[in-house]
Amino acid sequence: MPVQPSDGGYVRTPGGVLVPGDIDPFHRTLHHVAPGGLIGQTSQTSGMKRLEAVSGKTVGARSLWMGQTHVAASTSSGNHHHGASETAIYVVSGNPVFVFLDVEGDEPAERRIRTSPGDYIFVPPFVPHREENPDPDSEAVVVIARTTQEAIVVNLDGLDWSEVRL
Question: Where does the Cupin type-2 domain start and stop, copy by copy (predicted)?
């Protein structure tokens, strides 16, 4: 079933194709971002380097941010959270460890999730966490997708929730 524009109208492109009238020209084509096109001018956390690929800034995305994070060998990131954004992480290389404070039990407890290439991690909104790369020789690389078109990063002193502001 074809997508119906909200106003019910269609427009003809210069090439003669009818498209929904409420879709702007920038969102009618695929956008290719090659590795050399990733940009580092995004929110950062100590101990890691974020590279932006798909966002409002790079491709005009309206509700998605996607990029890479690199954590050098024998390095830990600073503690941080991503505001109201949900974050999905795919491990490309290395064996990063994701650390958070589990507050669901009788006592808060620091939890460590050890990962391998091909693993996925889901980080709910506002959850304080950090990434660690225990490998002494190789960097860890992950691909990140967020439910906002900007890289929301709030750096924290600790993993507890005392600094989290909703």
Answer: 70-142
Domain ranges of the chain: 1-30, 31-156
* Amino acid type, 143: V
Q: Residues 79, 159: contact at Cβ < 8 Å?
A: yes
pLDDT for the residue numbered 8:
62
- Asked whether the predicted pLDDT for residue 157 surpasses 60, the reply is yes
CA distance 12 to 125: 41
Query: Residues 37, 146: contact at Cβ < 8 Å?
Result: no
Short-list 149, 44, 156, CA closest to 100:
156
Q: From 3.40.50.150, 3.30.70.20, 3.30.310.80, 2.60.120.10, which CATH number describes the 31-156 domain?
A: 2.60.120.10
- Other CB atoms closer than 10 Å to residue 115's CB: what's the count? 19
Burial of 7 (0-12, 13-18, 19+ CB in 10 A): exposed
Q: What is the C-alpha separation between 161 and 103, in angstroms, rounded?
A: 9
Which among 30, 38, 4, 6 has a CA at the least distance from the CA of 18? 4
